[in-house]
Amino acid sequence: MSNELMMRKRLFKLYAANLPFYLDDKSFTGLFGCPICMRPFSEESILPETLEVNLAHIYQKSLGGKLCTLACKKCNSRLGERYEPHLTLEAKMHRAFDGTGTSSIDGFINWQGKRIPAKMNMDEEGRNVVLSPHLAKMPEVLALQAHLKTNPTDQPLHLSTNFPERQRQEIASLASAYLMMFREFGYEILRTTDVDEIRALLRSDDPPAEVPCAITSIPCQTVMTAPGELAHTVTLVRSADGMCFWGIPLPSPVKDKPLRCVLFPGPGKKGSEDYKAICRVRTGSVQCKCTVVPLPPARQRLVDAEARYFGVRVWNEMTGQKVYC
Q1: Highest mean pLDDT among 40-44, 88-92, 109-113
Q2: Residue 103: Cβ-neighbour burial (10 angstroms; 0-12, 13-18, 19+)
Q3: Are strands 105-111 and 229-230 parallel, antiparallel or unpaired?
Q4: What does the radius of gyration of the chain's CA atoms come to, in whole angstroms?
Q5: Is residue 125 over pLDDT 60?
Q6: How far apart are CA 66 and CA 80, in angstroms?
Q7: Among 55, 93, 158, 216, which is disulfide-ready with 68 (CB 3.0 to 4.6 Å)?
Q8: Are 52 and 12 in contact (CB under 8 A)?
C-alpha cells in the first residue's frame, strides 16, 4: 500500500467519524463529505481504481506545501487549474526579480508588431532578457538578433509578461485558509455564518470583481520553529479596535519576509460582523496581533465524544466571548 493511499485512508476515517457530530442525517454515516461541495463519498472513492477523493494540499505542493486534507477530485482540480497557478506565478515573479538572477519568468519582447518569446530576470547589475528560440517564432528571433547586432543603441525594447490576477490569488489564499480550518476543526466550520459564501466562491469557475478576503502579515517566528517548518497552523487575530478572527498563516512569496495570514470568520454573530467589516477595509491600515491557538492531537479534536464544538469552546476561552453551540 502506497504512502498516499495510507494517508487517504487515515484522513477518510478521521473525517467520516467527525461528520455525525454536526449533521443530523443518518444517510451520511460512514461517509466523507467533500468540505467544498459537501457531496458524500464512500471509502471506495479513495482507492486508486476510482480516486474520486484525493489529497488536497493546504498550500500547493509546487510552493513547498506539505500539509494535506481531503477534497473531491472535481473541487480539487478546479482550485488547481483556475486559482492556485496565480499564487505560483506571483512567487515566480518575486524570485525572478529578487536581484540574484538565479530564476527567470517567461515573457515577450514586443518588436515591429510581433511578440517574441523571452525569459526575464534581474541580477545585481539590472534586468536581463534572454531570447527563447521557440520553433514557431524562430524567424522573428533571428531577425531581432540581427537587428540588435546592427542597431545596439536603437530605441528601448518593450517587454511584457503575464501577471497574476488579484481576485484569483485571493480565492486561492482563501481556499488554503478554508482547507486548513477544515483540517483542524472538521465539519464544525460549516456552522460558521459566512462559510456558505466562502464555499460558493471556491466552487465558482471565475471570481467576482471583489473577493471578500482579508490578509495581514505576521512575523515568521510567531508560528515557525525553523525556516520552512510551520509549527502552528491556526492563530487568533485581534485588531486594535477589538475585532477577532481566526488567522491562517501561509508562506510568503518573498523569501525571509513576514508570513501572510489569511483571516477567517469566527463563530457567532459578532464573528460574522467582524469578518464583513475587515473585508471592507481589506486590512491595509489595520494593526493586528496574533496569538497561537493550542491544538491537541487530531483524534481529540475531531473524534472523541468531548470534542464536539471544540472550536467554539477554544474561541470563547481565547476571546472572552460567549458564543453558544
Answers
A1: 40-44
A2: middle
A3: unpaired
A4: 23
A5: yes
A6: 15
A7: 55
A8: no
Whether the Cβ atoms of residue 8 and residue 69 lie closer than 8 Å to each other: no
End-to-end CA distance of the chain: 40
Percent of the chain with pLDDT over 70: 88
Neighbours of 211 (CB within 10 A): 19
Torsion-angle region of residue 194: left (phi > 0), alpha (psi -120 to 50) or beta? alpha
* Confidence band for 179, pLDDT divided at 50, 70 and 90: very high
C-alpha–C-alpha distance, residues 170 and 156, integer Å: 35
Task: Measure the CA–CA gap between 146 and 144, rounded to whole angstroms.
Answer: 5
Q: Of 249, 213, 200, 233, whose CA–CA distance to 69 is shortest?
A: 233
